[in-house]
Specification:
Layout: H1 8-16, H2 27-40, E1 51-55, H3 61-68, E2 72-77, H4 80-90, E3 100-103, E4 117-122, H5 133-143, E5 144-155, H6 161-167, H7 170-179, E6 181-183, E7 194-196, H8 200-208, E8 212-220, H9 235-249, E9 260-267
Parallel strand pairs: 1-2, 1-4, 2-3, 4-5
Antiparallel strand pairs: 5-9, 6-7, 8-9
């Protein structure tokens, strides 16, 4: 496929893949990722031989942790450059060569076998970056065994209020809150791919119409610590604020304040 014919979301991620990790190498993201792993661990399959999916895998941050835990990981991304970065992380952790790397749109994963995976991760909001999130969810449901678990993050529509107020355009504000659609704020218009945002109720509806039930939702993060990185300088600082964050994250009234919604779904 010629570069111009690639979807915008693919063009953007192909371009930034080699330096993507550098954008997330600071105290805030280390704190954020430690919280994420704590939220994920209770839902990991008990059988270490289970096959798991890392969807929209990016540079393989979560796939590498799963592989290190002993799971056979299938990493899926629309960007071949991101998959190359993922392969570099995972191959040294995969001596039995059980892990796979698949370039695919989440709305079309037909080459993967149905009813084959115990767990799927979709971290970094990849479902919302597809053309049709409902179609992506149905594709994921096809791949999971019954009672299999999907853990996914979604851009929180309510968290965008301040951004749209700053634009000072009530018509744009109204349209956004009606359909929840926006675009990635990259400078190049050629790479401004569509993003679907969700309220907590939207997430529940998405699950109920695609073969899932919601097990839990957490806000991530309720505390806007990316604006207060200086509060996360020491290990003790990180532990203190993580304890406070965890006390708020599962509170339904606090979900609207979080930048993202992390949901755990069970395939029914």
């Amino acid at each position: 496929m010629s570069p111009r014919k690639r979807p915008a979301v693919q063009r953007y991620h192909d371009r930034v893949a080699s330096r993507y990790d550098l954008s997330y190498d600071d105290n805030y993201w280390k704190w954020h990722d430690a919280l994420t792993w704590d939220y994920l661990k209770p839902f990991l399959p008990r059988d270490a031989n289970s096959a798991v999916l890392d969807l929209g895998c990016g540079t393989g941050k979560w796939g590498a942790k799963l592989a290190k835990s002993g799971f056979a990981v299938t990493s899926v991304d629309i960007s071949i450059q991101m998959l190359d970065e993922t392969r570099e992380k995972i191959e040294p952790l995969d001596p039995k060569e059980r892990c796979r790397y698949i370039q695919a749109d989440l709305c079309n994963m037909s080459e993967l076998p149905k009813d084959s995976f115990a767990l799927a991760l979709a971290m970094g909001d990849p479902i919302g970056c597809t053309d049709t999130p409902k179609k992506a969810m149905k594709q994921i449901r096809r791949l999971l065994v019954t009672d299999g678990v999907l853990i996914a993050t979604f851009d929180n529509r309510l968290a965008a209020i301040d951004y749209y107020l700053k634009q000072g355009d009530p018509a744009a504000f109204t349209k956004f809150f009606r359909d929840g659609k926006t675009h990635w704020l990259t400078k190049s218009e050629d790479e401004q791919f569509l993003i679907h945002t969700f309220t907590p109720q939207n997430v529940r509806t998405l699950a109920e119409t695609t073969g899932f039930e919601v097990v839990e939702m957490v806000g991530k993060t309720v505390l806007p610590m990316r604006h207060y990185r200086y509060l996360l300088e020491t290990a003790q600082d990180k532990r203190t604020w993580a304890k406070i964050e965890k006390s708020l994250a599962r509170t339904s009234d606090a979900l609207g304040r979080a930048g993202h919604i992390q949901a755990v779904f069970r395939a029914v």
